[in-house]
Amino acid sequence: MQRIRIPDVARLIGVSDDTVRRWVDQGRLPADRGPGGRLLVDGADVARFVVARRRATDDGPAVSSARNRLEGIVTEVQRDGLVAVVEIQAGPFRVVSMMTREAADDLGLEPGVPATAVVKATNVVVERSPVGEAQ
């Protein structure tokens, strides 16, 4: 069992510490006190909670095969000849995309424009995060 501290749960799923504490207080996410009195959540419980929450907000049939959607704001657009490099800040993530200049122009991409980075990758590297308590 991998037990994770509240701030780490919040960071991993992209919400505030207060939101996670509210879910715990409401009984939506089980937690217990670990050494030193800190609230800890079982990693498997976090995974189940995230899946249930995602299913509850499912908008119906998908219109795209890409499942990784990062909503953010365009922070930079560099146009050079036929190519444009677009940078989006999506929460804590910086996403950079290279596309045709025509595509960037057609989308009206400029700094300050809300945009969604849709990622469909054939190769994704997964690393183990150093959070939680070793059991």
TrEMBL record:
Entries under Pfam families matching the protein: HTH_17 (PF12728), TOBE (PF03459)
UniProt keyword Cell membrane, yes or no: no
Residue span(s) of domain Mop: 63-128
Keyword terms, alphabetized: Molybdenum
NCBIfam families referenced in this protein's UniProt entry, alphabetically: excise (TIGR01764)
Protein name: Helix-turn-helix transcriptional regulator
